[in-house]
Amino acid sequence: MASFNEQLQRVWHAFVKERGYLPATAREACMWGVAQGMIAAPDYDPYDRLSEDMSRALRGEYATDRMGRRYRKNHAVRVTKGGVQYTMWAILGHSAREHMHKAFIQRREQIVGDCFQLATDVDVYNDFHNDQEPIQIPFDFRDDVEERKLWNDKTAA
Q1: Global pTM value
Q2: What are the residue ranges of helices labelled H in the chain?
């Protein structure tokens, strides 16, 4: 039996194939898949849905410090207890150093994972189109980060 993700992937591929591989939203594909009987619209536990909404809201909450720096206020750490994964949230100015250190390490790992996948995707694209000049994406972000800091300092002044 296919996993739920595999079912959704099948819906997506059938949907875009039928539409001529045009860009589309995931919502459009889901609505089409339900209408085609390929997947069922799920019944959600309201607390699961609310906690997803709250997590999204917490991720999107920012504040500004006394120096004018905009920072993410809430930080998550993923932990596993008894084989179940939980996301523990804490507020930056009120959380223990251990929590924040883990949160920063986990966010960095997400960035590394995204960069690795982007590098792989670029390499595969370039291999598919080896008759063209390869697309090159730099992964040294030091100058970008420093430039953003300077830009933020200028706009805050």
Answers
A1: 0.69
A2: 4-18, 26-35, 46-59, 97-128, 142-156
